[in-house]
Specification:
It comes from Streptomyces marokkonensis. The protein has three domains: 6-115, Butyryl-Coa Dehydrogenase, subunit A, domain 1, CATH 1.10.540.10; 120-224, Butyryl-CoA Dehydrogenase, subunit A, domain 2, CATH 2.40.110; 231-379, Up-down Bundle (Butyryl-CoA Dehydrogenase, subunit A, domain 3). It is built from twelve helices and nine strands. It has helices spanning 6-23, 26-33, 41-49, 52-55, 67-81, 87-100, 103-115, 231-264, 276-301, 309-337, 349-361, 366-379, and strands spanning 120-123, 138-144, 156-168, 175-182, 185-192, 198-204, 210-224, 266-267, 270-271. The strands form two sheets. Strands 1, 2, 3, 4, 5, 6 and 7 form a seven-stranded mixed beta sheet that branches. Strand 4 (175-182) and strand 5 (185-192) form a beta hairpin. The longest helix has 34 residues, at 231-264.
C-alpha cells in the first residue's frame, strides 16, 4: 500500500504548515484562548484565502477534489500547532453535504465554506453512553419546508426533538448537521443555528475550545440524504478519520517539544536526552505515532474507489482506536518527561496534552471504539 502523498497533497501540506507556523504562535494562542469565541477568525480567513478550505471539496463544487486525503493533511498540520480553528467539524460536515446533499444545499453551503464566510458544525454526541450511529434525538416529518430554505427544490420539513452534547465550535456556525432517529433509520438533518426551537448552552472543554449543548424542541430541519440510507454512518466514519488526523498532528508536535526540551535540559552534567529511561519513553511515543499515522492513511485509502463500506468502517475504527489509546499515552509520556515545566501553562506543550485528552474522549473513548470494532468483526456491520 503506497502512502506517499503526491504533488498536490504535498503542496497542501507545505502551504498549511507555513500558515499554521506563522499564525499559530504561542502568543496568538494565548490571545485566542481568552476571546469570546475561542476561534481564530483571522487564521480561518487566511486558510480560506489560500484556497485550503476549498481544496477538499469536489471539483463540481468549486474545489480541487482532494477529499478525505486533503482533510487529513490539513488536520495533521493544524494539530502540530494546536491551532484554534474548527477544521474537523466544518470539513467533515462539508464532505457530507457534498456527497449526500441536494444541488441547492451544495450551492448554498459549500461556496460559503470555501470562502471562509460560513460553515456548519456537527451535533453527533448525546449525554450518556450513546452510540453516535444510534441517536436518541428524534425527527418526524411535518410537511413541505416552504419558506424555511431558499430555492426551488425545497425538501420535506422535519421536526427534531432531543438534546445534543458537546457540539464543537458553535461560534460562527450558521447551520448544524444533526443526527436523529426516524422510523426508517438514523438520518442527518440540516438545522439553522438560530432556528425556532433551538436552544444553546455554551460549555468549556478540556482543550480551551468552546462547545455547546443544544436542545431541540420541535426544531425545523431539512434532511441531507434520506434517513436510513447510510449518510449518518458515512459522516461518523469521516469524523473518526478526521479526529485521528488531528491527533497524529497533536502527538507529533508534542514529541518535537519533548525532543527540543530534552536536548537543552541538563542534569548531572549531561543532556536529559542521553538518559536511557528518557530515550525509552520517546521511543514508545514514536512507535505509537507511527502506528497512528499508518492506520490513519489506511483509513483514508479505504475510502477510495472501489469502495467497500465494511472495510472503510473497520479501517476508520482502527485509526480512531489508535488515536484514542496511542494518542493519550503519547501526550501523557511527553508531559511526564517535561517534569515540572510540563504543567506550566506558559510553556506550549500543555496545549498538546489538553488537545490529546479532549480528542481521546470525542465520539467515545478507547473502550467504545473496541466495542464497535468487535461488533463489526463479529456481525459484519457497525450499526443500523
Amino acid at each position: 500500500m503506497d502512502f506517499s502523498l503526491g504533488e498536490e497533497l504535498e503542496a497542501v501540506r507545505d502551504l498549511a504548515r507555513e500558515i499554521f507556523t506563522d499564525r499559530a504562535t504561542p502568543e496568538r494562542l494565548r490571545e485566542v484562548e481568552t476571546s469570546a469565541s475561542r476561534v481564530d477568525a483571522s487564521l480561518w480567513g487566511d486558510l480560506a484565502a489560500a484556497g485550503l478550505l476549498a481544496a477538499v471539496l469536489p471539483e463540481e463544487d468549486g474545489g480541487a477534489g482532494l477529499g478525505m486525503a486533503g482533510v487529513a493533511v490539513l488536520l495533521e498540520e493544524q494539530g502540530r500547532r494546536v491551532a484554534p480553528v474548527p477544521l474537523w467539524p466544518a470539513l467533515a460536515g462539508a464532505l457530507a453535504v457534498a456527497a449526500h446533499g441536494t444541488a441547492r444545499q451544495r450551492a448554498e453551503l459549500l461556496p460559503d465554506l470555501a470562502e471562509g464566510n460560513g460553515r456548519v458544525t456537527l451535533a453527533l454526541e448525546e449525554f450518556g453512553p450513546a452510540d453516535p450511529l444510534t441517536p436518541r434525538t428524534t425527527a418526524v416529518q411535518d410537511g413541505p419546508a416552504e419558506g424555511l430554505y431558499d430555492g426551488p427544490d425545497d425538501a420535506a420539513l422535519w421536526r427534531l426533538t432531543g438534546t445534543k452534547a458537546v457540539v464543537p465550535a458553535p461560534a460562527g456556525a450558521r447551520h448544524v448537521l444533526v443526527t436523529a432517529a426516524t422510523a426508517t433509520g438514523s438520518g442527518l438533518f440540516l438545522v439553522a443555528s438560530d432556528a425556532p426551537g433551538v436552544t444553546w448552552e455554551h460549555a468549556e472543554t478540556t482543550s480551551h475550545d468552546l462547545s455547546a449543548h443544544v436542545t431541540l424542541d420541535g426544531a425545523p430541519g431539512e434532511p441531507v440524504g434520506t434517513p436510513g440510507d447510510g449518510t449518518v454512518a458515512a459522516l461518523v466514519r469521516d469524523s473518526f478519520v478526521a479526529l485521528a488526523a488531528v491527533q497524529v498532528g497533536v502527538t507529533a508536535g508534542a514529541l518535537l517539544h519533548a525532543a527540543d526540551h530534552l536536548r537543552e535540559r541538563h542534569q548531572f552534567g549531561r543532556p536529559l536526552a542521553t538518559f536511557q529511561a528518557v530515550q525509552h519513553q520517546l521511543a514508545d511515543c514514536y512507535v505509537d505515532i507511527e502506528a497512528m499515522r499508518v492506520t490513519l492513511w489506511q483509513a483514508v485509502d479505504a475510502q477510495k474507489e472501489p469502495f467497500d463500506a465494511e472495510d472503510a468502517d473497520r479501517a476508520a475504527l482502527v485509526a480512531k482506536w489508535w488515536a484514542t489509546e496511542g494518542g493519550l499515552n503519547t501526550v501523557h509520556r511527553v508531559q511526564h518527561v517535561h517534569g515540572g515545566i510540563g504543567v506550566d501553562t506558559d510553556y506550549p506543550v500543555h496545549r498538546h496534552f489538553l488537545w490529546g485528552k479532549q480528542i481521546s474522549t470525542t465520539l467515545g473513548g478507547a473502550g467504545a471504539d473496541l466495542e464497535r470494532l468487535g461488533a463489526l468483526l463479529t456481525s459484519g456491520a457497525v450499526a443500523p
